[in-house]
Specification:
Elements (H helix, E strand, L loop, with lengths): L2 H4 L5 E7 L6 H13 L5 E7 L6 H11 L3 E6 L5 H11 L4 E4 L11 H8 L5 E5 L7 H18 L11 E4 H7 L9 H9 L3 E5 L14 H15 L2 H29 L7 H35 L6 E5 L10
Parallel strand pairs: 1-2, 1-4, 2-3, 5-7
Antiparallel strand pairs: 3-8, 4-6, 5-6
Helix pairs in contact: 6-9, 10-11
């Protein structure tokens, strides 16, 4: 791509969150740039450094110095991948946006077919990575999570575990209207697309450097965030569970009265009371946990703290901009 194309407003934005990926960045650029140049359209690449503690930021800075089509955002600390993606979306200028991870598990070669699919009409294309290489327990948990969220939120989202998406600018702009504390962009994308999405199988490979940071704990956190961010049904479930346990307690009480009237009593009296107390106590803790999640979300909204803080932005017009 010539110098004149570099000065044009980009038609395509590629947003890449980065957290301690210094080994992945050089080979990523070597693969990414030829693919983007082959599209014959003005583009930009936005790296979002999510508080890396290794040498990722100096490498990104060098990339931006060497290629003005590259821009970068650096967080003051780690705020999480979803916030990094949100910041990248807010700064993207292209009519079409690609979201991809820096680990190259889903390589850049998937970008052209994703754009072709996007131009067929959907607002978003989900990259569908084969789960055949995942452990059995992860596949079972993923299926259970989809079933659970479908019944709690009322809609289904694709089983996209690739971290690869293609979006139209109108959907990107709509995302900006919603508070960033939703913290689960895939669910928000699906909800905003209103069914106008497509799925595309993508080629995938094993991570060559570093380790996967999206472990079971992170997946569970995103699942809870998604459910409490898009549905109030967990509150009703706690009420329903309370009603069920209350009915069981009344039944046990009636049974105790009948046994007492007949002159007998349950052989395991202490065990009976212990089971009853622990059952009621666990239900209370469950309900308090659900209520606590919603109260925490209200707290985050009310205190008006920013969801992320940018320490530095690198781009052609403002090479070293400090923001808060």
């Amino acid at each position: 791509m010539d110098l004149q194309s570099q000065t044009q407003t980009p038609a395509l934005s590629v947003v890449i969150p980065v957290h301690n990926e210094e080994q992945c960045l050089p080979p990523l650029r070597e693969e990414l740039i030829p693919v983007l140049e082959g599209l014959d359209t003005p583009f930009e690449v936005i790296f979002v450094d999510d508080g890396s503690t290794d040498g990722s930021w100096p490498i990104i800075r060098r990339f931006c110095d060497e290629d003005k089509r590259m821009r970068a955002i650096r967080f003051i600390r780690n705020f999480g991948q979803q916030m990094a993606l949100t910041a990248g979306l807010r700064h993207a200028k292209g009519r079409e946006v690609i979201l991809m991870d820096a680990d190259m598990e889903v390589p850049p070669e998937n970008i052209p077919p994703a754009l072709d699919k996007l131009r067929e009409g959907p607002d978003i294309v989900f990259g569908m990575r084969p789960r055949s290489g995942d452990p059995l327990y992860m596949r079972v948990l993923a299926r259970l999570a989809r079933w659970f969220t479908h019944h709690l939120t009322g809609f289904q989202f694709p089983d996209s575990n690739s971290g690869f998406f293609a979006l139209r600018a109108n959907l990107v702009q709509t995302v900006g209207y919603y508070n960033e504390f939703t913290g689960y962009l895939k669910g928000l994308f699906t909800w905003l697309a209103f069914g106008r999405y497509a799925c595309l199988p993508v080629t995938a490979r094993r991570r060559q450097y570093g380790r996967n940071k999206f472990d079971f704990r992170a997946r569970f956190k995103h699942l809870v965030t998604f459910i409490t961010g898009f549905s109030a049904k967990p509150l009703y479930l706690s009420l329903a569970a309370g009603a069920v346990v209350g009915g069981v307690s009344l039944g046990l009480l009636a049974l105790a009265v009948i046994l007492w009237a007949q002159g007998g009593w349950m052989a395991g009296e202490q065990v009976f009371y212990l089971a009853l107390l622990t059952g009621v106590g666990s239900l209370q803790l469950f309900a308090l946990g659900i209520l606590g999640e919603y109260v925490a979300r209200i707290y985050l909204e009310v205190r008006k703290h920013p969801p992320y803080v940018i320490a530095e932005i690198l781009e052609r017009d403002a090479p070293h901009t400090e923001t808060a």
